[in-house]
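To: structure subgroup
Subject: Chain for Friday's discussion

All,

I'm putting the inputs and outputs inline so they're searchable in the archive.
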Amino acid sequence: MSLPLEGVVVVSLEQAIAAPLATRHLADLGARVIKVEQPNSGDSTRHYDTVVKGMAAHFVWLNHGKESVALDLRTDEDLALLRRILESADAVVSNLAPGALDRLGLSVNALHAEYPRLIVVDVSGYGKGGPDDHKRAYDLLIQAEAGSCAITGLPDAPAKPGIPIADVGTAMYVYSAVLAALFDRERTGAGAIVEIAMLDVVAEYMGFALNQAIHSGVDPMPVGMGSPMVAPYGAYQTSDGQTAVLGTTSDREWLRLIELIGRPDLADDSRFAHNGDRVKMRDEVDAIVAEWCAQHTLAEIQFAADEAGIGNARYNSVTDLAEHRQLAARRRWRDIETPAGPVPALLPPATARGWDIRNGRVPSLGEHTEMIRAEFTATADAQQ
């Protein structure tokens, strides 16, 4: 097998989503990920539900391909074992509660000084310094703080996006930062300290809305299935009881859309000339598009939109996604092993031709503890 990260060792002091998703992607590409968990309880996501053959949906998604070692880091013995593991590691990733690493004597500065080639990634909610650096952070809390909920839903019914974008976005920055640091170490020989704040991640994702608020002095208002910045761009009921999603992102596309729906006369209507005009007239624009969609089936709408070069989609449920023809046709599913038998999982989105992907196993709590304890005890003995 050609695994691009084969030989890379990552130690994860992780919980929930942000760090575990990042390290799972590293494991997919061949890294050895040693997941340190609390004895008896383990990662909190192990206990969210039992929907996947008695296991939690979150944990199965986030943790296949890893080795689970149950260590009580409050004891000298287990803390010493962790330090021996770190001597052989390339990266350590943590998203424990604020101050947890410091209390163990494993602050980012201490780790960098003791293991200068180690890539140290510390994930926090609000970053180091400032009045909020002590606060715990969960996805909903950060999305609320960072304005994401304010541009989701409707003006009188704000909502948290269904995807945990604070967690997932942070995971992707952790993932890319580790890869960048590994590349940099090849040139410099030095590790790195990478500190990533979830608030910073969502603030970055708020880019266009943030610019609008800063430069216009007006907060963008959420528009449900749409974007406050573009019109028409939304969901419309079809004659066969389904929902078509249509979008235009330029004035040229607007002209193609009005030809498609049989309203070329709108090209001369100055109220709809530019996107900014159409945003102001959103209700009327949506009503025009909705009237046409209500007279056609989803299949008719999608065929006509594809022919006209207009972006379109079907509003799907999560079950629909699981059965999506495009995922099936492109063989995006694989089986991974779990203590309860094989279960389906998606392939990672980012791979290269010629790379293999590890179809790793979901570990039970502490499954690899004795193996790792023996391995690193033997390593320590050999070095003496």
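Points worth raising on Friday:
Residues 165-188 form the longest helix (24 residues).
The chain has a mean pLDDT of 95.

D.
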